[in-house]
Amino acid sequence: MDEQLLYSKNVNENPCHMCMPMGGILPFKGIEGAMVIIHGSQGCSTYMRRHIAEHFNEPVDVGSSSLNEKGTIYGGEANLKQGLDNILRVYNPKLIGVLTSCLAETIGEDVERITLDYRKEKGLEDFPVVAVSTPGYGGTQNEGYLLAVKRIIMELARPTEPHNKLNIIIPNISPADIREIKRILALLDIEYTLCPDISYSLDRPLVRPFTKISTGGTKLADIAKMPGAVATIELGVTASTEESPGHYLSEQFGVPCYQVPIPIGVQNTDRFLQALTAITKRDIPDSLLMERGRLLDCMVDSHKYNFNGRSVIFGEPELVYSLAVTCVENGIFPVVAATGGSDRLTQLLAPIFEQYKQEIAILSKADFATIRAKSVELGANIAIGSSDGRYLTEREGISLVRIGFPIHDRVGGQRLLSVGYTGSAMFLDRVTNTLLGNKYGSYRRSMYEKYYQTGNTPQSIGGAV
Amino acid sequence: MEAALDIKERNPFIATKGKQKVSLRCDADSISGCVSQRACVYCGARVVLNPVTDAAHLVHGPIGCSSYTWDIRGSLSSGDDLYRNSFSTELQEHDVIFGGEPKLSRAIDEIVAKYQPKLFFVYSTCIVGVIGDDLEAVCKRSAQKHGITIIPVQSSGFIGNKSAGYRAACDALLRLITPEQPLPRKANSVNYLGDFNLAGEAWIIRNYLTEIGVSVNSVFTGDSNFDSLREATAGSLNIMQCAGSMTYLATKMQDEFQIPYLRVSFLGMEDTADSLRKIADYFGDPAMLARAEMLIARETEATSPIIAAYRGHFNGKKAAVYVGGGFKAISLIKQFREIGIEVVLIGTQTGRPDEYDTINDLVNDGTVILDDANPAELERFMTQQGADLLVGGVKERPLAYKLGIAFIDHNHDRKHPLSGYIGAVNFAKEVYSTLCSPVWNYIYDWGGENRG
Ligand code: SF4
Question: Which ipTM did the prediction report?
Answer without folding.
Answer: 0.92
